[in-house]
């Protein structure tokens, strides 16, 4: 049996991180987690990582697609936080942000969904570095593993 799997060596890859400014008090912790994960797994942040800011999560797919089509990046991590409110706006924004999967399929560039979609601010805080871990760190691990598995196929 032949098995192909990725590893967690982040050296020799270029990563873009698309960061939504909306709810930045949460998102900045996700960014810190992602950078920490990349650094701990061999990426040189100054030369291998590009951080691209956009206004909010609704705009993430447009920026992600442009980055994917540029040919500069082996993977793109998206970070943001959509917190449910009293209107259906949450559903539209969360759905739009989640559309990055189609970009990954169309371009063969892993586009990692590190966007929190929570019911409360407290849930977002928990997932950005407190008791539920840091989803930014987890997104970085997925990016590294995906780049390495795709290189082996």
CATH superfamily: Lumazine/riboflavin synthase
* Radius of gyration computed on alpha carbons: 15 Å
Say what oligomer this is: single chain
Q: What is the number of E strands?
A: 4
The major sheet is characterized as:
4 strands, parallel
Strand content: 15-25%
CATH top-level class: Alpha Beta
Q: Specify the helix fraction band.
A: 40-55%
What CATH architecture do you see?
Answer: 3-Layer(aba) Sandwich
Note poorly predicted spans. none
What would you say about this model in short?
The protein is of the alpha/beta class.
Write the layout of secondary structure elements.
Layout: E1 15-20, H1 24-40, H2 45-48, E2 49-54, H3 60-69, E3 75-83, H4 89-98, H5 100-107, E4 111-118, H6 121-127, H7 135-152
Parallel strand pairs: 1-2, 1-3, 3-4
Helix pairs in contact: 1-7, 3-5
Write structural notes for this entry:
It contains 7 helices and 4 strands, in the order βααβαβααβαα. It has 153 residues and is α/β, with parallel strands linked by helices. The longest helix has 18 residues. It is globular and about 50 Å long. The chain has a 4-stranded parallel beta sheet with strand order 2-1-3-4, with helices on both faces. Helix 1 crosses helix 7. It has a single domain, classed as 3-Layer(aba) Sandwich (Rossmann fold). The mean pLDDT is 96.
What descriptive keywords fit this protein?
Rossmann fold; 153 residues; 7 helices; 4 strands; alpha/beta
């Amino acid at each position: 049996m032949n098995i192909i799997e990725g590893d967690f060596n982040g050296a020799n890859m270029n990563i873009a991180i698309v960061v939504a400014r909306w709810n930045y008090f949460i998102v900045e912790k996700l960014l810190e987690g992602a950078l920490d994960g990349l650094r701990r797994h061999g990426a040189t942040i100054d030369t291998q990582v590009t951080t691209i800011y956009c206004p909010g999560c609704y705009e993430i797919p447009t920026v992600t697609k442009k980055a994917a089509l540029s040919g500069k990046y082996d993977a793109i991590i998206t970070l943001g936080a959509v917190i449910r409110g009293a209107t259906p706006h949450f559903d539209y924004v969360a759905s739009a942000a989640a559309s990055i999967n189609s970009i990954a399929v169309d371009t063969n560039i892993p586009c990692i969904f590190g966007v929190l979609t929570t019911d409360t601010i407290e849930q977002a805080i928990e997932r950005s570095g407190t008791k539920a871990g840091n989803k930014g760190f987890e997104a970085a691990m997925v990016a590294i593993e995906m780049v390495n598995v795709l290189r082996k196929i």
